[in-house]
Structures are given as C-alpha cells and as structure tokens.
Amino acid sequence: MSKNISTQLIEFNEKLFNFLQSKGLDQEVKIQNARDKNSISDTKNLKQDLDEVNNVDRLLRVGIIGRVKAGKSSLLNALIFNGRDVLPKAATPMTAALTRMEYSENVRAEVEFYDQADLEQIAESGRKYEQIFNSEKTNKLAELTKENELFKKEHRQSEMMTEAEMQQLAEDHARSESEKSIELASAYDQHQRIKAAKIQLSELQAHTKIKAKTTEDLMGKLNDYVGSGGKYMPFTKSVKLYIPEEGLKGLEIVDTPGVNDPVQSREERTNAFLAQCDVVLVVSPSGQFISEEDMALMGRVTGKNGIQEAYLIASQTDSQLFGSAREGETNPSKVLDKVTDILNAQAHTVFEKNKEQTMQKMIELYKKHKVICTSSVAYSMLINFSQKSKWDENTQHVWSNLQKYYRDYFSDDSTANMALETLSNIKRIKQILIDIQARKDQIQAERRQSLISCKISAYKEFIDVVVDYIDERIDKIAGADAEEEKNRLENFKEQKAEMKSVVDMEYLRAISQFDAIDEPLINVLDRETKAFSETNRITENSYTESYQVKDNGVTNLWGLFGDRYETKTRTVKEDVINAGAVRDFILEFRDGISSKLKSTARKYKTSWEDDVIRTILSGIREVNQNYPNSEKLNRRQINDTIQAVFRKIKITDFDVKDQLPSEINRSGKLTDYDARRFNEAASNYMFKKLKPSIRSDINKYVKSGIESLQNVDVAKGILDSLEQQISTLIHEIENREESIARYKLMQKDIAKLKSEMPNA
C-alpha cells in the first residue's frame, strides 16, 4: 500500500511541475512563494524523501556488550543456535574481534583486516608501552641498588638482595605499572603477535572472503581469524558472518570487543555500530555483577540515535542457586526471584553512584526493566535433556547439584524440563526481541504515514493557492482597464529611480547590520563549551594493594631457612579520568553545535529579512504616495515581490566539519599517565583546535553572508519584477478573450489535477 501511495505521489508531483512549467505559472511570484512555504520539492528530492521511509530496514540490530568470559558467546549460542556450542570464544580482550551476524542462505563470512595505518598505530603504542616499562624498570633498579649500598654501608648484609632478585623485582614493578594502561598493554601484546605471525599485509587480501558448506564448517575456518592461536588473528579487525540459522532471521547481531581497544579505528567502528542498534543487551556474570569494567563498556552507548531498549542480562545464574539465596527455600523459581531482586538492587546502587551526564539517558533505559537472569547451562540441559551421557563435566556437576538441593523439581523429567526453561530464561529474551521488532515496524510505519500525510496536505494547500491565483487573474483581466494599467506603468517608470535610491539605501543599511549575527553565534558556542572543563576533569582515586618485602627479622633466624617474604599493604593514589564521558561530550557537542548554530543563524536571518522587507516596502509605498495623481501600487504585490527576491539570496548554511583525533577516541576510565595524557589532549583539541576552528567558521559565515548580500542588486530585482508584472497584465488585458480562455483552460487542468491527488 505504502509503495503504491509513494508511486502515486511521485507521478502526481511530476504532473504538477509539468503543469506549472507548461503554463508559465512557475515564474509567478505568488506561486513561487507558496511553493517554498509548503516545501513542494522537485520530483528528485521527493523521491529521495520517500525512498528513505520506504526503505524499511527490516533487520533489528541487537548490540551485545560484555567483558571477556561474561557469557556472551554462550548466550548467543542459546539465542541463535538453539544451544549448540557454535561461536568461538575470545580468550582475551586482545583476541576479541568486532563480530556481526545476519541471516543468509549462503554460508559465508567477510573479514576486514587492519590497514597500514592501523598497524603503524599498534606498533607506536607498543613502543610507548616498552618505553614506560624500561623507564619504570630502570628507576626501580636504581632505587633497589641504592638500598643495597645503604645496607652494605651499615653492615646489614643479610638484608641485601642479589642481582637476580633486584632484576626480578624491578621487572615485576615495571610490568605492574605499565599494564595500568590497558590500551598500551593490549597494543604491545598485539604487536608481539603480529611480529610472530610473519605475514605481509599484501598477503591478507586473498583471505577477506570465507566460503563454507555449513555453519560448523564456517566456524572451524574462523578459528584462523579469531581463535587465540589463529594464523590471521593478530590482523583481524572485524568479521561479518552470514549464516542460515532461523534464529537470525530479521536480526543483525553486533558482538563487541572489550573496552579501550588497542586499535582506535576498531573502537570507532564499534561505537558507530552500537549507535545504530535498536536494542542493547549488557551481559554480566551474576557472580561479579555490573563491575567497573561493565560500566566502562556500557559508557560506549549514549542513548542517541535509534536505541529503543536496553537490558541487563545476568549470566551464569545457575552458580547463584546454591549460595545464600537458597537458604530456607526449595523452589528454584523462588530462589531465582530472590537472586533477581538482589542483582537488581545491586545494579541500581551502581547506577545511583554514576553521575556521568552522558550516561543518564541509557541508565534510565536500563532501570526501566528488571535484571534478566539467564543460565546457558540450564538451556543446554533443556535442549539436550535426552542425551545426558553427552553432557560435559560442568553440566553434569550443575545437574547433580540441582537434583541434590531441589529434589522435588529435578527428580521428574516433566518438572525438570519446566524448571530448566525457567532458569534459562532464553524464551523471555527471544520474546523481547520480537516485541521490539514489532515496535520498530510500527515506528517506521508511523514515520512513513506522517511524511505521506504532510506531503498530501502541502499539495492541497499549494493547489488552493494556484486555484486562487488563476481565479484572481481571470477577475483582474476581466475587470481591469488597459489605459489605467498603462498609466500605472508610466507612473511606476517615473518613480522607479527614486524608489531604487530608497531601496538601495535601506538595503545597504541592512547589510551593515548583518555582521551583528556573530554575537548570538559566539554566545551559543561559549554556552555549549562551558561544561567541558567539568567533564574533562582528573580526580584522585585511592586503593589498597598488597606487596611483598624480604623478611630479614628475627623470625627468619638470619636466613637459615632460606629467603622469606612478608606481605604488607599500602595505600596507592592514582589520577583517574572518565575518557568515555569526555569523548561523548565532544561528540555530542560536535554533532549538536552545528544544528544549534544553524538554528540561531536562521532565526537571526529571518528576523533580519523581515525587518528589511518591512522598511523596503514602507520606502516604496512612501515614494508612490508622494505622487498623488499616480496609480497606487498594490501593497500585497510589492510584499510578495520583495519576498521572492530575498528568497533567491543564498547564504551558505553553517556546518561544522572535523575529525575526532584518535588519541581522544577512548572509552572507560583511564589512570595516571594515560589519564593525564588524555586530559591534556582533550583540552588542547577542544580549546586550541575545535573551538577556535568554529570561531573562524563563524567569521567566515558572516563574511560570506555579507558578500552574498552585496552581490545581489535587490532594488533592480524588485523593481524590474514589479514592472514586468504590470506589463504582463497590460498584454493580457489587450488580449482579453484569449487570455481569459487560456486561464479558464488552466482552471479545468488544475481541477483535473486536484481530483487525481492521492489520498493518505
């Protein structure tokens, strides 16, 4: 139905434009103004608008967020592959590739490898890691050597360390300090794997397409690309899988790698795909539910774009059925309810502590729904219930515990199946996706219907103006006197020079005032950047850590029993910054400032134009009235003509174009060196690059606007148009019968066209 209406609208639009052009009506001032007012676009632009709403993206995009070993793969295996252990699991954050999946009859995969720029960035970050490591090691060795010299001087040989011990302690300290930068540590690990692989970049192009006969066959081949020991794993940026699984129909799954990706281009791609998702599932193990790392990963999603829903999925919930929540309860469903309440309260406590402005919208989405507890093990048992002999050791162990602690529910096959379905909760997640898909379709249908209704309403209003114009024209030609109009034309020509002088003067005055537009634009810029420094703020965090020292006391009896080490604790202070919040602030500022400046500029320009039109209209009428014996000009005709001339003046629209530097395209919390480096880079970008660049753009906008205004001879445009309109009327009056017949034919044509207008 919608396609049919779209086709009708396109055909009607084409007929309307052909009618206007063939009758010369497209040149008439009143009709031009009505066309602009009702946004009657040409057929090409109309087709683009309709294509956008008709090209329904049927795929429901589902973003999966979760740290390594959170149970993402197990959840996806349950949701998509009916519990089969199909998807390869990432061993570490470094080996996790960005993975997308959608339905296809042809089993295949597309692999994107890192390019030369990516590899150079990995190598550079790896070198920075080594520099920090070597610096920390050198400093620690110097410190330990100094201690040894002091012990020697004071004859405390028993407390002295050997060269090997000092080397080991220095290396341990250096590794601990340098690995505080997850990004640099990941990049170093990645770079070592790349060097060990001994593969040239040029060789990879032959391996971007993977064909397979079955899903299992494809997954086997994928191990070379995403498996921890895979031949091409160090070079794999992202993978898109096309699989003939019924569970994938209507879906596109986006499975994301860890936070602070060592490769910025992949981090950018991950964030871009997440922004396009309709629903986000955050998978967090119930035993360590909603950790700091989870919150950092969740910070990638800011609630912009089309995200409709977000859910917290507590994975591995079977592990919670045998703990404190079980006390006094033998019904697993009731224990599960208790676990859900505990985890829900835990999540809300974490959310209440989070004050990051950019995350508040998403937090509200998460809080809308209760935590969903799931157990992939329970689902696997349910699907393979009749094949208990093939269950792995972990599944057997969980089953044994379920029978032991919940005997009434797991001694009978029927009740066991029902209990396992409740524990797995997979059916509920599937239903959520179905409901969101239906809502997405409804939203798309509403958008489509709204556009079509607006277009039809605009056509009706526009055609009414055309009909009124034709009717008025017939009445005017029938009732006007040619001699009167000739006198009006002669009077107008007599007054034209004086009118031009008045219009030129008023227009020049208006141009001189146009540069005042920079003040409201700069005010918008200052207002929008005001909160940046508060967001890009380093805070101090402290925590307690354990460390070992050599025990040289009496308890060690002069080292007779070998070296012993005593464990001590100390308070460590570190600088912390929320990189994700800063990045999101900059992205939202950059995306929003352009439209806010455009809106402000357009409001000012509209107000400025209204003022100019008013003064020019007043000036022309004043000149006209100074000639008491002349024919008076029509006020509405003058106003329409002035508006038509101003409508043709094009001032380049305001636009902010800039590329976010890779060093600030980060997420999660950064500490110490990384935090300070990021803070400085973000501040420099905002206040030394982006804001000055926008100030410069504002100056260019004002300058180009004034130049555009100066290049238009407004007086000539207005007065020539008025003169032409009077001359045309005289010609039509002198050929009255022919002119009226022509307009009456137009009446019939427009009436026929009106009857062919599509209905919403």
TrEMBL record:
Residues 134-161, 719-756 form a coiled coil. It is found in: Membrane. The keyword GTP-binding applies. One of its GO terms (cellular component) is membrane. Transmembrane segments: none annotated. The lineage of its organism: Bacteria, Pseudomonadati, Pseudomonadota, Gammaproteobacteria, Pasteurellales. Keywords: Coiled coil, GTP-binding, Hydrolase, Membrane, Nucleotide-binding. Residues 62-297 form the Dynamin N-terminal domain. This is Predicted GTPase. Pfam families: Dynamin_N. One of its GO terms (molecular function) is GTPase activity. InterPro entries: Dynamin_N, Mitofusin_fam, P-loop_NTPase.
